[in-house]
Structure formats: C-alpha cells, structure tokens
Design brief:
The chain is an alpha/beta fold. The protein has two domains: 160 residues, Peroxisomal Thiolase, Chain A, domain 1 (3-Layer(aba) Sandwich), CATH 3.40.47.10; 145 residues, Thiolase/Chalcone synthase (Peroxisomal Thiolase, Chain A, domain 1, 3-Layer(aba) Sandwich), CATH 3.40.47. The protein has nine helices and ten strands. The strands form three sheets. A four-stranded mixed beta sheet has the order 2-1-3-4, sandwiched between helices. Strands 5-10-9-8 form a four-stranded mixed beta sheet, sandwiched between helices. A two-stranded antiparallel ribbon has the order 6-7. A hairpin with a 3-residue loop joins strand 9 and strand 10. The protein starts with 21 loop residues before the first helix and ends with a strand. Keywords: Acyltransferase, Fatty acid metabolism, Lipid metabolism, Transferase. InterPro entries: Chalcone/stilbene_synt_C, Chalcone/stilbene_synt_N, Polyketide_synthase_type-III, Thiolase-like. This is Chalcone/stilbene synthase. Pathway: Lipid metabolism; fatty acid biosynthesis. It is an enzyme of class 2 (transferase).
C-alpha cells in the first residue's frame, strides 16, 4: 500500500516512531493532550511561514485587515490565529476567520473568503494561513482505514497574501489572479470523506466509493463553471488537482478527459510531501508559478479539492507571465 501511494518523502512535526512519542503508541493520548501538542508545534511554524509570505511586500501590518486560518487537525482557542496576530504585530482590530473541518478543500474556502473581503475592501489585504499537523493525531490500531491514512498524510503549512487590483493595473509576472470561485455538493456522497472527533483525537475515514464519486462528479462541476465564464476544458492551460492520493488525481484526470501530463505538478507535490490536506493545493499553485511555461502572457488554470460532503471546492485563476 505504501509503495502504491507514489509518495517518496513526507514531513512530520511529531515523529510517531520517536521514543518520546511512545506513550501515544502504547496508550492513545487524550484529545486534550493532542490539541496542546498541536498548538505547541503549530504556532512557531505558522508564524514563520506567515512572516515569509509577507517578507518583501510593500504592506504595513495595518493594511492586513483579515486573517483566515484553515486547519482540520487542531482545535484550540485562543488559537493559532491569535498567536499569529500577536507575533506578527497585526492590528488587534483585525478580522479573523477560522475554517475548521473542511478537510482538503479548506484552502479553497479560505481563499474564497479572502477574495470576497478584498473585493469589498480594496485598500486592505488578507492573509491566508493553512496548517495541518496530521502526525499529532496518529493512532496505531489494527484497522485498514488507519493504514490508508498513515500511508497518505503528512504535515505542512502554507501562507499567502491576497489583495485587490484595478482592472487596468499592470500586474507583475508571477502574480496569481483569482477570477472566480466555485463550490458544489455532490448528491448521495456523504460517506466519501468523514471527519470526526473521539476521545483520543481527530479521525478521518475515506470510503472505497470516493474515487467513483470523484470520477462522476468532477467534470459536470468544472464544465458548468467554465461555461459560466465563457470557457471550456480545452481553454485551460493549468490543472491544479488536489494531490490527495493516486486515485484522487487519476480519477480527476479521467473525469475531465485531459492528458495525464497536465497533472504533473500535483503528482510532484504528492511525491515530495504526501497529502497535507488544505496545504497541498497551495503547494501545487506555488509549483505552477515557478514551473509553468512562459510562452503565453497569461496562463489560465483551474484548481480544485474535495471536502466532506463530498464537496468540490475550487477556483478559476490566471498566472501572469509577462
């Protein structure tokens, strides 16, 4: 199963095989213990990544009017969002939104919230932070679902800054422009992705039906969104497919009827980092900014991921090349 995952490396904040973590193996820790462990590791990582996202940008702290934090692997309040505000010196009157339990699609929910904010407040910026520490919730049990989960998921953190621009404003190469967002609940798929909380941690169950739901659901959702924007599948240069696992990518490609090569960046992120839930799609977008061809002045792309529901959450975007 691990070999078939096509994952070569993963990052983990807490090594489940470390002797210090042995108590979690012998006697599963309580949810309280795990959430404190999440906070201990999440705060310095989220603060560092947020600082790097803001580094070199011509914005003052007072211009960041909204902070959106997305995570499905840790819940505590005051939480990571409050720590980011204090450590970065952001305004105490900043608006904060925490996106919890939206799974792998949470980055798209967070980006949608941020883009709506800057459209309504064009003089302000929004900071989006996604952090997932799956290792904190590791449970070693004789259950096939646990084996699947441990074979796929890794830890990660990503941050980005969202701002509004005027229609005629010239944008620098490398900028990503969010054209529209989309969301669709798929009928009769509630068993596909199930997140929960029990006495010893956060749980995730992936149904064997999930690949079939993705195959039948992706194309209709994406095709309708493109039609609404005067486009069709052949007009899309970049496909940022959530790298949730081989079957997720394969069935998305199959549903859309696109070339397998168009999912190269998703496969790359999966191989190097595993499934980092909400973080993964941001890594794919970053890879596209760095790697995509520059023959065209603007590359048009579609990004999407899947959350409990099953829901398809995504966006239509452009990357400015020159």
């Amino acid at each position: 199963m691990y070999q078939k995952s096509r994952i070569t490396t993963r990052r983990m904040a807490v090594d489940p095989l470390d002797a210090k973590f042995d108590v979690f193996r012998r006697e599963p820790a309580t949810i309280r213990d795990r959430m404190h462990l999440f906070y201990e590791h999440a705060v310095p990582l989220a603060v560092d990544v947020s600082k790097r996202a803001l580094a070199g940008l011509p914005y003052r702290a007072a211009e960041i009017g909204l902070l959106v934090l997305a995570t499905s692997t840790g819940f505590i309040a005051p939480g990571v969002d409050v720590a980011i505000v204090k450590e970065l010196g952001l305004s105490p009157s900043i608006s904060r939104v925490v996106v919890n339990f939206m799974g792998c699609a949470a980055a798209m929910n967070a980006l949608g919230t941020a883009t709506n904010y800057v459209r309504a407040h064009p003089a302000m910026k929004a900071l989006v932070v996604c952090i997932e520490l799956c290792s904190v919730n590791a449970v070693f049990a004789d259950d096939i679902n646990d084996v699947v989960i441990h074979s796929l998921f890794g830890d990660g953190c990503a941050a980005l800054v969202i701002g509004a621009s005027q229609v005629q404003e010239k944008l620098e190469p490398g900028k990503v422009v969010v054209r529209s967002s989309f969301s669709q609940l798929l009928d009769n798929t509630e068993d596909g992705i199930v997140l929960g909380v029990n006495h010893n941690g956060i749980t995730c169950e992936l149904s064997e039906n999930l690949p079939g739901y993705i195959f039948s659901g992706v194309a209709p959702v994406v095709t309708e969104m493109l039609w609404d924007n005067g486009l069709q599948i052949s007009d899309i240069d970049l496909w940022a497919i959530h790298p949730g696992g081989p079957k997720i990518i394969e069935q998305s490609v199959r549903s859309l009827g696109i070339s397998a090569e168009l999912a190269a960046q998703s496969w790359d992120v999966l191989a190097r980092f595993g499934n980092m839930l909400s973080v993964s799609l941001i890594f794919v977008l970053e890879t596209m900014v760095q790697q995509a061809e520059s023959a065209k002045a603007i590359s048009t792309g579609v990004a999407f991921a899947f959350g409990p529901g099953v829901t398809v959450e995504g966006m239509l975007f452009d990357i400015i090349r020159r």
